[in-house]
Amino acid sequence: MGWFNMSKQEYGDFVNQRSPSSKLLPDTLAAFAIGGLICCVGQALLLLYQSLGMPKELAMTLESATLVFLGALLTGLGVYGRLAKVGGAGTLVPITGFANSVVSPALEFKTEGFVTGTGAKMFVIAGPVIVYGISASVIYGVIYWLIETVL
């Protein structure tokens, strides 16, 4: 009997038997630790830039740019993938996860050429995030403007 002849209950049992068991507590702790470590690196960068006499706004901008660069670099070197295997979602949330989501598809499809491979696939994952982020900010801006002009 193949999987296509199974009832929903049988298929559910089949999937549960073959799915790896989740280690919820260890996985959560690892995600917290790795995500927290990335955030601590970001905080250290912010403090470093401020200690060099930079205004807070510039220091925050440089911190973000540095974290994006480090995320892209570590992805290109294959380090970020290994870190993600340990830290799971803890590597997705910080800004370095965004850099990873742009660089990974670009590297994966580079053999298909610069335009149709790297260029076309670079924003496969990050593209929707950018579109919805911009759309949400426009909607928020319109609502804020309406509230400010009416009140």
Number of helices in the DSSP assignment = 7
Overall mean confidence score, pLDDT: 87
Q: What amount of the residues lies in strands?
A: under 5%
What series of H and E elements makes up the topology? HHHHHHH
pLDDT < 50 runs, ≥5 residues: none
- The whole-angstrom Rg is 21 Å
Helix content: over 70%
Shape: extended
Q: Count every beta strand, where a strand is a DSSP E run of 2 or more residues.
A: 0
- Roughly how many Å apart are the termini? 68 Å
Q: Which class of secondary structure composition applies to the elements?
A: mainly alpha
Largest sheet: none
How many domain modules?
A: 1
Can you lay out the helices and strands and say which pair or pack?
Elements: H1 8-18, H2 24-51, H3 56-76, H4 79-87, H5 95-108, H6 114-121, H7 126-150
What do you see in this structure?
The structure is a single chain. The N and C termini lie far apart (68 Å). The model has no long low-confidence stretch (mean pLDDT 87). This protein is an all-alpha fold. The chain has helices spanning 8-18, 24-51, 56-76, 79-87, 95-108, 114-121, 126-150. Helix 2 (24-51) packs across helix 3 (56-76), helix 3 runs parallel beside helix 5 (95-108) and helix 5 runs antiparallel to helix 6. It has one domain.
List keywords for this structure.
151 residues, mainly alpha, 7 helices, 77% helix, 0% strand
Tell me briefly what this model is.
The chain is built from seven helices and no strands. It is an all-alpha fold and 151 residues long.
